[in-house]
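Suppose you are handed a protein chain with no further information: no name, no annotation, nothing but its sequence. What can you learn? This example shows the usual starting point.
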Amino acid sequence: MIGALASASSSQPNGIRPVNLSTDLAPLADLMELVFKDSMDSSSYAALREMRYLSRLGVGMHLISRLNAMTTGIGMGYVWIEDGRLVGNVSIYPADWPQDMGYTFIIANVGTHPDFQNRGIATRLMQTSLDAISERGGSRAILQVNYDNRTARQLYRKLGFAEERAWTTWRRGAYASIPSPLEADLFIRRRRRSEWREEMALAARIRPQARGGLGWQRPLHKRLFQPPLWHTLLNWLNLRATERLVVRDPRMDSLGAALWTEHQIANRTRLTLLNDPEAIPILAEALISNISRRHMRTPLEMEHPADDARMNDLLPRYNFRPLRTLMHMHWQAK
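A reasonable first move is to predict its three-dimensional structure. Written in structure tokens, the prediction is:
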């Protein structure tokens, strides 16, 4: 791996420069595998395999890079060269946020080779990225960092990032055992189109935008609750389907909990749970129980606020296991 990191031309000056997709993809893949090995999953390794494959395309790389979202983000980023070795990286991606919320960018893959850490390289890479985002008219940058990585969180705070909320990713495998059905007089049904405002009001109470909205790249916006026609058509073409279940709090006759089930062929099913802490606790469990039984043969995954103690106790009972906890942070351009 060290040999691959040294593949950058020794004639290059030390310091920061933009990524060169024709020469940097292979050493970047090696650097990412080395730096992020403790937090990588199967999709991460698949991305590295794709980078190494693209690095061998030669002249075809420039055409493919225009069509590939991953290389688009990597190509907008920067690397640090030291004695001919590629030892630092940062990637910049345009975020899929509604245009009326401002031009938002994602910062990712911030890493420095272990032999070159504590030299200010990550700080220089980050500052250059923020300057580039401002020059491109960006109003905001967002990133995720491992909750336990205090050093990185401190660096980002010094650069002007604000911490929003910590989120835990939970996963339940297929055919996992689940508790006996709940005995509760509750009516779970699909959300009516006319109820989107009430559901959005529920989300605004428990997932305000200042604390990260509905999760990673899911700002609190009307588009999530009343998708435009083109978005619905795009989901249909990509074999994606979303079901929205709700249950009302019988004490107040208002939506007490909602659960979105987003399914795509060949992928695990993604859940989004909105549970009002003021509602009776059994509402959220009723939705989890319902979905767990209906999707027994399907892996389930959910990103949920790490500070929700009630769900931290409930989800393990339905065989959900925590995978990782990430702190979401954002930076506002001046």
